[in-house]
Amino acid sequence: MATKTTSVASAKSLAAHVTRLAGGGRRQRFSLRLLVPYVFVLPFLLLFVGFFFAPFFYALSQSVYKVQRSGLGFGPPSVVWAGADNYLKALHDPPADGLGGHSLPPLLPPGVLPAVRRAGGGRDDHVGLLL
Length: 131
Hints:
single chain; mainly alpha; 59% helix; elongated; disordered C terminus
C-alpha cells in the first residue's frame, strides 16, 4: 500500500510540475478570457481612429503650411511653413467677421437672441453677427 501512495503522490507532484511549466493552465485560460472583449472592440477602435482622428490631425498639419507660386504660376509650387499666419489671417480678414453668425445661433440657448436684441434697443447693426 505504501508503494501505491508514493506513486500517487509522485504522480501529483509530476502533474503539478508540468502544470507550472506550462504556464499554470487555469490561470492562462482566465487571462485569455479577459482579452476576448478587447479583441472584439479592436476593429472598431482601429476604424474609429482611422476615420475620425487621422483626418483631424492631417487637416491640422496641413493648416500650418501654405503653397507659394512664383512668377506667373507656371512653375512648380513650393510648400512652405506658415505657422499661425493662416489662423491670424482668418481672424483678421473682414469677410470672416460674419462667419460666426451662421454657426453660433443654433448653439445658444433659446432666450439669448431676443435678450441681445432687447439690450441693443432694437438696433440690429451689432447683432448682425448673431443672425
